[in-house]
Amino acid sequence: MESREDFYFDNSDNPESDDTIEKEEHYKWTISLEEETKEDAFIPEEDLLEQAEPEVAERLILKRDLRKAAIARMEAAARTQGDFEDVIDAWDKEDKNRERRERYHEVCRDDAEVPFEYNMSPDEIVIPAPIQSVYWQQMMKGEFLDVIFDCPYELQELVCDSNISQILSELSEKHKALFYFLYIRDYSTCCLAKMYEQSDRNIRKVRATILRKIHKKLIPVLQYKCDNGLSTTMKERNFLERHCSTDG
Predict the structure, then answer these.
(1) Please, are residues 198 and 226 in contact by the beta-carbon 8 Å criterion?
(2) Rounded distance between C-alpha atoms, residue 61 and residue 50, angstroms
(3) Per the record, which residues fall in region Disordered (predicted)?
């Protein structure tokens, strides 16, 4: 009598079963990773990075990258609506962690508890009153040239054109000061009359003398530019036409 052998079905060579096992292992690994993420959610990563040694800090950074890579693999393997909802929840947790890290370094204030006047200097040296003026805005941006040369005797340094700068540098110190207060500081002739203890008429006469000297030296410069085809602005051309017609 022939012996009968019992055959048992072994699905170890079945590729579908291998995929199922891989998915189960991946799912378990993802769940464990999410649990670790929940545990670390209340610990700022910046504190861990600052307190840890370089090797440990590198591992913490790699852990964050691995967590993102795991979520990306979950997203690639998602097929059903529930899978995609799990992926969305995982990314939401990452966004919450990122926002928490940003809030950790953000300086917040409460208008009710901390007024703007708190610890303000009474003499307004630290926070000057004319903070919106062009002068202070240039200083805060790092443009110090106008501030350095903000002086009647350095008037020519405030001009970019070399010809005009040369003309202004040839003025006398008195004419430089008057020109500076009139056209840079925008003082009125009455104000300058009080400053210099002179009449308003005398200030206007000196102003006319200064402008006449500047125009006399500026006309040949503009004429040279026009004759040689150099670039000139509309104001310069109108100025040249007006004064040439007047001289003619």
Answers:
(1) no
(2) 12
(3) 1-22
Residue 158 shares a structural domain with residue 98: no
Please state, in angstroms and rounded to a whole number, the distance separating the CA atoms of residues 78 and 75. 5
Region 206-229: mean pLDDT is: 89
Range of the domain at 85: 15-104
pLDDT in tens, 114-130: 555 555 556 655 555 56
pLDDT > 80? residue 30: no
Domain membership of residue 114 (yes or no) is no
* Burial (CB count within 10 angstroms: exposed 0-12, middle 13-18, buried 19+), residue 71: buried
For residues 242 and 163, state if they share a domain: yes
Average pLDDT estimate for 38-66? 57
Among 104, 136, 165, where does a domain finish? 104
Question: Would you state the pLDDT for residue 23?
Answer: 62
Q: What is the pLDDT of residue 98?
A: 83
Residues 6+ apart with CB under 8 A from 101: 44, 45, 46
Nearest partner of 172 among 219, 215, 214, 222, judged by Cα = 214
Is the model more confident about 202 or about 68? 202
Phi-psi sector, 224: left (phi>0), alpha (psi -120 to 50), beta: alpha
